[in-house]
Amino acid sequence: MIDTSGKSEVIKKYESSIDDMIMYKGKSKLVIITQSLHLIQLEVSDDGTIRETSKVKSCIIHQNTRRTPYKFIWIAEGVVASATGEHSIRCWDLNTDESYLIPLDCNDVTSNDGIIAINFSPIDKKIVAGTSQGRFVVWTRVNIQNILLSNRSVDRINFVHCESLGLFEKDHILSLEWGYGSHILIRSFANIGTIFEQKLRCAMTDEIVAIQMSRNIIEIQHTNNAHRYMLKFKLQIRDFVFNSNHLVAWDGEEICVYKLNQRAGEEISSFPFLANSVSLFVDSLYIAKENTIIITNMDGVQRNAILFSSLEGKPCHLDVFGDYLAVVTQKSFLKVFDVTKKDPVTLSKDSGNKLDLFGAIKSIRCNSNGRYISIIVDGKHDYDHVPQSGTQLYVHDNHRDTTHYMDFKALFRVPIAHCWDLLEPNMLSCETYSFHNFSETESRSKSSTVSIIPI
Fold first, then answer.
1. How far apart are CA 378 and CA 362, in angstroms?
2. Taking Cα atoms as reference points, which of 197, 194, 198, 196 lies closest to residue 173?
């Protein structure tokens, strides 16, 4: 121990070397894991004295041949987990002194494979793990605290996915770190790389519903006759937009356009384009690239362009609704354009309106007369997935250059989707999900709610 004056002293000595330590501030406990897999809890008093309160030894069934230090991660309030080279993640509840295993449910796991790296995302409630043979594994955490308190099994830790990553195949995955959004940095002995989670999207108009079924398939459903068909793409869909006549999908490097008919979809063009974002108005594409929005026809032939200054920054969020295009740049400047003209006319001041929001912008939606723009931001969370920001739905008045918001935090909810009514420009709908732990008897449908908000 080292005090504020710089003096140090040995307060505890163990036969086995210490691999990791973590402080449980809520209980004033120092938790230690040793190379021999002893889990030790030390109570730390205000004057710095330490008293050992618990010491347990865990048995390893599958010993990993390549020794890597054991590391702790938090996966819930008072619950830590560690990768021990086994076919399971080993977890300890520091409140009840109980332990349990989260099994590796891959079908073709070999005896010399084992989990040696783990991490947890409090935002997505996902546990990710890497194995000594280059496998990447994902679980989701569902109400783990309620499970432990009622002595239930851990079947609410749901297995999601297991696959061998080509870059890391047969290589030891040493560490996993969550980055921006759903990106994960992976480090092995031989390589460093990133992967990200592809979230499947769905959207609808008055006549058509588009549902992304996989990385490269979108299902189209016509509401007037209940007919449905599939659109299959060669690219891996990053996002898509559509209207009653066309659907446009892109992956950041290529754009593909389908003509929508009653019975089937017909691919009419596909062309390379480094696009940050794409929007669609009638038969024109609005493509954000660097400091420019390039306006093209459905074949990618340029018709016009909208330039943004270095002060405004690069356009990164586009939304067309009715006759208006809303644009937000990386520097949080907002501009609205009337796109019915050959040369789009701005409805904002020349430099745009500067937005002052609590968080990075996640999505924007423009109302049907171009006056109001609703905005959802990415939030920051604590380790038990309680949002510290991102619970607000913002609405910017483009005429007055003012921003108001509705905060759902008191309702234990976070906005995840929003849209304006086409006929009533002051009517806004917002979908939210609950971050409050429900009991198992409560309906799953209660976790998501749609609110109608008059502006």
1. 6
2. 194
**Contact 394/379 with Cβ under 8 angstroms?**
no
Domain 18-196 is found in CATH 2.130.10.10: yes
Q: In which element (H, E) is residue 64 found?
A: none
- Distance CA(65)–CA(28), nearest Å, equals 35
Nearest to 27 by CA among 64, 68, 74, 63: 74
pLDDT at 436 exceeding the cut of 90: no
CA angle 212, 216, 218 (to 5 degrees): 30
CA angle, residues 259, 265, 270, in degrees to nearest 5: 55
Asked whether the whole model's pTM tops 0.85, one would answer no
d(CA 87, CA 83): 9
- Concatenating the DSSP letter of every residue in 265-324 gives EEEEEEEE---SEEEEETTEEEEEETTEEEEE-TTS-EEEEEE--TTT--EEEEEEETTE
Spatial distance between the Cα atoms of 79 and 102, rounded to a whole number of angstroms: 13
Alpha-carbon distance of 187 to 381, in angstroms, equals 25
Cα end-to-end span (Å), the chain? 59
Rounded CA gap, 296 and 267, in Å? Answer: 17
Residue 185: Cβ within 10 Å count: 14
Separation of alpha carbons 387 and 376, rounded Å = 14
Residue 284 — very low, low, confident or very high, per pLDDT cuts 50/70/90? very high
- pLDDT for 63 beyond 80: no
- pLDDT of 268 > 90? The answer is yes
With cut-offs at 50, 70 and 90, classify the pLDDT of residue 362: confident
**C-beta atoms surrounding 56 within 10 Å:** 12
